[in-house]
Amino acid sequence: MAENGEGLGTVPEHERILQEIESTDTACVGPTLRSVYDDQPNAHKKFMEKLDACIRNHDKEIEKMCNFHHQGFVDAITELLKVRTDAEKLKVQVTDTNRKFQDAGKEVIVQTEDIIRCRIQQRNITTVVEKLQLCLPVLEMYSKLKEQMSAKRYYSALKTMEQLENVYFPRVSQYRFCQLMIENLPKLREDIKEISMSDLKDFLESIRKHSDKIGETAMKQAQQQKTFSVALQKQNRVQFGKNMYFNDRIPEERNEVELKRAFEEEDENEEEVLTVQDLVDFSPVYRCLHIYSVLGDEETFENYYRKQRKKQARLVLQPQSNMHETVDGYRRYFTQIVGFFVVEDHILHVTQGLVTRAYTDELWNMALSKIIAVLRAHSSYCTDPDLVLELKNLIVLFADTLQGYGFPVNRLFDLLFEIRDQYNETLLKKWAGVFRDIFEEDNYSPIPIVNEEEYKVVISKFPFQDPDLEKQSFPKKFPMSQSVPHIYIQVKEFIYASLKFSESLHRSSTEIDDMLRKSTNLLLTRTLSSCLLNLIRKPHIGLTELVQIIINTTHLEQACRYLEDFITNITNISQETVHTTRLYGLSTFKDARHAAEGEIYTKLNQKIDEFVQLADYDWTMSEPDGRASGYLMDLINFLRSIFQVFTHLPGKVAQTACMSACQHLSTSLMQMLLDSELKQISMGAVQQFNLDVIQCELFASSEPVPGFQGDTLQLAFIDLRQLLDLFMVWDWSTYLADYGQPASKYLRVNPNTALTLLEKMKDTSKKNNIFAQFRKNDRDKQKLIETVVKQLRSLVNGMSQHT
Hints:
Elements: H1 2-23, H2 29-38, H3 43-150, H4 154-168, H5 176-240, H6 252-270, H7 276-279, H8 283-294, H9 298-317, H10 327-350, H11 357-379, H12 385-404, H13 410-441, E1 448-449, H14 452-461, H15 467-471, E2 476-477, H16 483-502, H17 509-537, H18 543-571, H19 585-613, H20 630-645, H21 651-674, H22 683-701, H23 718-729, H24 732-738, H25 751-768, H26 776-802
Antiparallel strand pairs: 1-2
Helix pairs in contact: 1-2, 1-3, 3-4, 4-5, 4-8, 5-6, 5-8, 5-10, 5-12, 8-9, 9-10, 9-11, 10-12, 11-13, 12-13, 13-16, 13-17, 16-17, 16-18, 17-18, 17-19, 18-19, 19-21, 20-22, 22-23, 25-26
């Protein structure tokens, strides 16, 4: 039962498996069959039985179907056999036709192969043409690049390289020649950089060499513009009556001539005006800048250019050691600097970023400091005022030129004020030589004139006014000597020379007036005063010359107001202006006159000393000669002639000189008596000395110089007179009794002086009267002398104790 139960359970399973086998692809039968063996034991037998049964059923179905279709199959076979004969005939015909067709198609095949081959070639050619159409523009552009390199069109070459890299090379990048070209482009760029840098170096060297020419042209144009402007301003002042200032020596019609000449020069030079582009080819800079910009290395180029230009600036700013010797040295220095900065200004305005305003300002400030230091150092060596003036004009032109290009130049004009002081110093030195020459050539005598023409010539040179002289008939004389009009003319020339430096300094008339007056004061108070003092102190200048010098200084002093008017006419600044500087000529000539007066006193005393040294007294004579000494009479005659010359001097000067001479003569005579080397004096010598003093008193009373009141001049000899009277009268009792009283007869006799002279006479008495002691009168006199000596000594001791 169990088996039956199992058999019943497997039958449906086997049917399912058979259905799967029938309906499933043969490749998937394996798993189905494996399931038969995976089931219960002996299940495969049952399955095989079931399979056999299924096969038999199918065979039966097939047999049924064949039986059903058998007649149709037989009919079909019969029909097929009938067609067989026709098929063989057809086969023969087809074979024959095929053979004929094959024979006929051989030529077609050959031609077809030719066509195919041609078509392949045509396709290849088309491909080649297409590729060549891609490559040819590349090759043409590369060829163009080579031509541009050969023609040195480097900026265009770089643009061509950019086109090749960005447009053409990507189309043919697969070709080897393209790779070679690509590899060659960096080398070409480096070559272009090197070549353009070489061109830039050549350019920098060229502008360094041509800087002076560039600067000369720029300064010439600035000078022409300045000349034209000045001439135009002068014409405007003439037309509108506004003669502001400058040079009363130039008549108004001359301004018109100058303006006409300026217009003619402007017309002549208009066609010749050159610009910096005309003198220098800037294309290397533009080209190099563009090249480095394209290469993306613009900063390197800018740094290199600025570094090289700074080096060139230092070279340009370095002057030659002997630059100060000639104006050409300064001119070359300035033209090179102007040329340098004109180039930089041009680069600033035509390029973007290569040169900036900040860079040029920094460079100019550096250069300006160096220029000022150089000019300050080299100008200090200049001793020629003409050279200093030309230097000033060059500096002004230099400053005006660069100011036209936008560079600040105020510090240069400040420097000009320093140079102006130096210019004045050189002028003062030059005029010191001029004054010395004038003084050397002067004869120190009044100017003689014989006719009206000569009179007018002198008046035209010097502002002299004297109605009395005008009324005199010819021939006549001016009181001053030739040096006076010459000095006056030279002072005016100095003012003109000083004025020249003030031109073009952009200063007001008030400032110019102040400068002129200060420099003129220096000329008068320092240079002329020094020359006068040196002249006065020269040994060969005698009393006559000193008298004439005093007269000359008096007239020069009076002419100072005309010099002030002269400066006023030049500057149009009134002397009444609050800040107007006054001329110090009055004090200058007064000081010189006082020095000359003092020198007159000194030389007069020296002359007196020379005569006194000729004195040859016999101090032991017993009796006087009865007449004055010869030396003294010669001295008195000399003094009379000298004091006659003094009549042209101011009264006080002549009186002072006369009084000084008499006092000095009195002092010299007194010293002669009291000389320590003189040991003995006889009474005869005293009497002879008294005769000489009497002549001196007669000279004083003769009024050699008018203006003395009473016996004022005789008082110069009062000391000698009282001393000699004391000894001549031998009035010791009166002297000793009245000593110290205001009404004393011998008030001017000093006890010490009397003692000195008495001791010399005492010694003489002892020596000459050896036997006098045996005579009573002589003994009494000797005792009296000894008594007086003792009393005088007591007076002297009393004076010393009281002192």
